[in-house]
Design a protein that fits this description.
The protein is elongated. The strands form six sheets. It has a seven-stranded antiparallel sheet with strand order 11-12-23-14-19-20-21, covered by helices on one side. A six-stranded antiparallel sheet has the order 13-22-15-16-17-18, with no helix packed on it. The longest helix has 55 residues. The chain is an alpha+beta fold and 566 residues long. It is 34% helix and 17% strand.
Length: 566
């Protein structure tokens, strides 16, 4: 290896511009951060009620010169002129985008080592001389052939860090075996047979890794911006749902006597509290997202600066702390509940029915059915594909091959007594457990005289007698006995008076809300809800077809495919 060729290649590599990681991707493009009015990157962006963004000055001028306030993008009209509020997160991202495309900052000012009187600003440091020069004293390195071969780098204050302390020569090489920085003379000793490459080559490979990390950071920023928009949209949708429910409830309460007006006010207050809680939750999530974005942007800025650096040693020393993205929360499963619970409305309506005359009772029944029908449409979006787990099934139970049906087979099968299996009662669980979120499934109970349905916690007793299948023992169930006796296994148990005999039962769970609700799917009516529960374990769908009873109860429980209604 000659002295001039590797140095020449290194200097050339330093002079080449470094492309910004992800500029050609679709992560952060100028078009995404562009105001559709001025066609430039946002300046003080504001968000309209319809969710579109504009520069504050652009939308203000647009509305000042227009007879009606509308969105320039989607043309939605606003009865009342919105008050523009700056979207702080979007503004920061836009500013970050602008700053990212500026030239990288100049090196820190370093003074010339060769000046004897007034020190001039240095322009280059020479690793061979171990000296930093101003433009005048650098001239020999430009004009004299012997000095042209010297290794020049951008000015640094700690030049000794770039020199081999043993041989007083420039650190130009990197030993991959020992993860050490070497000079040419180091390779003649203990590193002779090691995997040694040019410092620039190792730095270039590390830059590629950092660029990948930077691309991941930008993707994370985009995902969080999308989540913020999703949260804002959820709050707006929640507000609209609340307004609709309030309007529907007014139609009912206007027909009631004065005493009912108090119930209406209490109902409104609860709904508003839920809306405030949703908004407060959204504010907290947005704040947390914004904090993560700030941290990610700080790391992104660091990576941007390192992607342009020619200080290879400094880059390599900081590489281990830069290559790994900051620890952030997994936001994929986090969302805002956009639908206010109608349990309060339903309960209030049910109580009011007792005080109304026959004409008003008919009106309330229609409204109640309409409310539950709307609720069922909403919760059916959380439908999951439930399959029975044969490893949990009592030996007397017979499961279909696809795991969608279960019945009592009268005869005990020879099955291994595993820890998961119910050995005392005719019970079986679904394969999938849930420890967060919402889920819903439907079961056909047609032709049966006895059945149990619901959910249970993972640690329920599976081997011996159970004093009572109630929430205290890990069961949230509704049961049928003797063909027409329905009961919610709460504490105390609640007899259920149902107008119709359910043929298909829907089970809905909101883990965070502590809610387990049962519905008559075909009648579009509510059966029962366990509310205010606290779940700390996985919940599993629970089924018991009960005993065959000489063929009277031989029909199977059938897990149905959820058909979403219009």
């Amino acid at each position: 290896m000659t002295e001039s060729n590797p140095r020449s290649s290194r200097l050339n590599s330093m002079e080449r511009p470094v492309a910004f990681a992800g500029e050609s991707s679709s992560l952060l493009t100028e078009e995404q951060l562009q105001c559709s009015i001025c066609l430039d990157v946002f300046t003080d962006p504001v968000t309209t009620p319809c969710g579109h963004n504009f520069c504050k000055s652009c939308i203000t001028q647009c509305w000042d010169t227009s007879e009606h306030c509308h969105c320039p993008y989607c043309k939605e009209k606003f009865t009342i002129r919105p008050e523009p509020k700056i979207n702080i997160t979007l503004r920061d991202v836009a500013d970050h985008f602008k700053n990212r495309n500026k030239e990288p900052p100049e090196s820190l000012e370093v003074l010339c080592d060769a000046c004897t009187s007034v020190k001039q600003k240095a322009v280059k440091s020479c690793l061979d001389c171990g000296v930093t020069f101003c433009s005048s004293h650098l001239e020999p390195h430009i004009n004299i052939p012997r000095y042209k071969k010297h290794k020049l780098i951008n000015t640094v204050k700690n030049l000794e860090m770039y020199m081999c302390q043993k041989h007083e020569k420039p650190l130009e090489l990197f030993c991959r075996d020992d993860q050490m920085y070497l000079c040419q003379f180091c390779t003649e000793g203990e590193h002779r047979d090691h995997n040694v490459i040019l410092l620039e080559e190792e730095s270039g490979q590390k830059k590629i890794q950092l660029q990948k990390t930077q691309t991941e950071l930008q993707q994370m920023i985009q995902e969080r911006l999308k989540k913020i928009q999703e949260i804002n949209n959820s709050v707006e949708l929640s507000k609209r749902n609340m307004e609709k429910q309030m309007s529907d409830s007014v139609e009912v309460f206007t027909a009631l006597i004065r005493s009912i007006e108090k119930s209406q006010a209490e109902l409104m207050e609860v709904m508003e509290e839920k809306q405030k809680a949703a908004e407060k939750q959204a504010e907290g999530l947005i704040k947390e997202l914004e904090q993560e974005i700030e941290e990610l942007k700080r790391r992104d800025t660091e990576l941007e600066q390192f992607s342009h650096t020619e200080d290879h040693l400094h880059l390599l020393k900081n590489y281990p702390s830069l290559r790994i993205a900051p620890h952030t929360k997994n936001w994929s499963e986090i969302s805002i509940n956009t639908d206010l619970s109608v349990d309060v409305l339903r309960t209030s309506l049910s109580r009011l029915q007792k005080t109304l005359n026959e004409k008003l009772s008919v009106t309330l029944n229609e409204k109640l059915r309409e409310t539950v029908s709307t609720e069922l449409k909403r919760i059916q979006q959380y439908a999951v594909d439930v399959t029975l787990d044969p490893d949990t099934a009592n030996p007397h139970l017979v499961l279909s091959g696809e795991g969608k049906q279960v019945m009592d087979g009268d005869t005990k099968q020879n099955l291994p007594d595993t820890p998961k299996r119910f050995t005392y009662y005719a019970m079986v669980l679904g394969k999938q457990g849930f420890s967060s979120g919402r889920f819903y499934y439907e079961v056909q109970v047609r032709g049966k005289t006895d059945w149990d349905l619901g959910v249970v916690r993972e640690s329920v007793n599976r081997k011996g007698e159970i004093d009572s299948c109630k929430p205290q023992t890990g069961f949230w169930t509704v049961v049928l006995r003797n063909g027409n006796e329905y009961q919610a296994c709460d504490d105390p148990s609640v007899p259920l008076s149902l107008r119709e005999k359910p043929q298909k039962v829907g089970v809905f769970v909101d883990y965070e809300e502590g809610l387990v609700s049962f519905y008559d799917v075909e009648a579009r009516s509510h059966i029962y809800s366990f509310t205010g529960q606290t779940f700390t374990e996985k919940l599993y769908p629970y089924f018991s077809p009960c005993v065959n009873d000489g063929g009277k109860n031989s029909a199977p429980l059938i897990i149905s495919r959820v058909l979403k209604t219009d």
